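Action item from last week, closing it out:
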Amino acid sequence: MAFDVDRVRAAYPALADGFAYLDGAAGTQLPHPVIDAVAGAYRAGLGNSGGAFPASRRSDVITAECRRAVADLTGGQAEGVILGPNMTTLTYRLARTLAAGWDPGDEIVVTRLDHDANVRPWVQAAARAGAGVRFADVQLPEGDLPLAQLAELITDRTRLVAVSAASNLIGTRPDVAGITALARAAGALSYVDGVHATAHGPVDVAGLGADFYATSAYKWSGPHVGAVIADPGLLESLAPDKLVPAPQEVPDRFEQGTLPFADLAGVTAAVEHLASLAGPPPGTRRERILAGMAAAEAHEQGLFRVLLGGLDAMDHVTTYGKAARRTATAYFTVAGRTPRQVAEDLAVAKVNVWDGDNYAWELAGALGLRDSGGAIRAGLVHYNNRSDVDRLLTAVAELAG
């Protein structure tokens, strides 16, 4: 079935303002079903978890449904879905927990491809534990993360390998399955940042070999909720800091404080929305998600070829990243203008883009762009269309000279 982008766009009320929302790599807009689910949960009445009354039971049901939905989206197990405010917060929690078992002389491996949320929590935790840190460098100008380099960095002293499933800056999709296999063979755990990747195609945590897979719903049309997916048995072996009366069960013991129950209802609705992207084929929700995300990926990549081809044809534009496998994410500079000036010019043309390093601190530095304000990032998601791309290209072309 062909991807019906007009049908998809009709579900997003924010798109009616006439702007081209090419800022999806920083966060997506919400479709009607998600907005309605959040509002509906509040209208119905909610209580804190574990109570004897209906409002509390509604919150418990919402939480359980959210875990199942995230598991279906990622190919994980509901019993291993940790929920929290965002990926960064959850990663800091898990870094503290895992580092409690590290000793001086142990090592971790992080990469310069990653968002800083999958670098700094591990570097800081290693410093507290007296463990060493090894950085995997990005191969430029392609923007790849060579597997051979990781093979040299990962040793029997490695305790954790942190890697992105896709760069939030230049879209590179490294060989995550190959990297996690190296980690496993060395007896190390792997922590995969899937925040950017999850929005751009089918995800299979088991196929990636990830011990931990992190994602954030606001990157795939959901509310601001983060999740980490892991094997429940692995979580049972870990003892995070928690309040004494807080639940001891997995995954609850990793969730500090009260969850945002209405937002969790929105997460489930967002997963259902993604499952509908390819139309109404039969099958389980997981099967429909795989079909919907594959259709969305093909749609995005078709638009991306137009976007990247148009940018590369302009003499006053320089694009960064040339990996063979990448998401539909462009990172570029315009001669004679700072990134913020370009973003402001595009905003006047009703095109939303981001400027700066976008928290890919190490990668922006490796590209030589961090100290000069970074670059412009235009990220396509499933609700973007050819008109959005054409408007960006026209506006950038007018910045020549």
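Closing note: The CA atoms of residues 339 and 375 lie 5 Å apart.
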